[in-house]
Structure formats: C-alpha cells, structure tokens
Amino acid sequence: MSNDNQKVQVVVQSDDKGHWVLWDHDGNPGVLGPYEDVAMAEHVRAAKERELAENEQNISEL
Question: Is residue 62 assigned to a domain?
Fold first, then answer.
C-alpha cells in the first residue's frame, strides 16, 4: 500500500569514482554505489524509487 503523503526523491549523481544513487524519503537520506556505468545506476534508481513509493517499509526495516 502506498502512502501519498510521503515525500520521495531519488537521483543519480556522478563523480570521478562512479555513479551514485541518492535518495531522500521523508527526510531520511540514503546512498548506493558507486556503479561503473550510468545505465546500471538508472536501473537501481528506478527500483529504489519504486520501493520507496510503493512500500511502507524497506527491507532493512523488517
């Protein structure tokens, strides 16, 4: 069940070490990476965005 009141932002940021997936979920930040290519980082970004938008809890909270 999704919660429409939650604020979710997930982005890809790149630097000299690689591509990072950063998110903010109601003021709770997180990061995954680095990934070698931007395509992989975009896939991870989409999955994380879906996880945060559609699930009340993420796997680390179970």
Answer: no
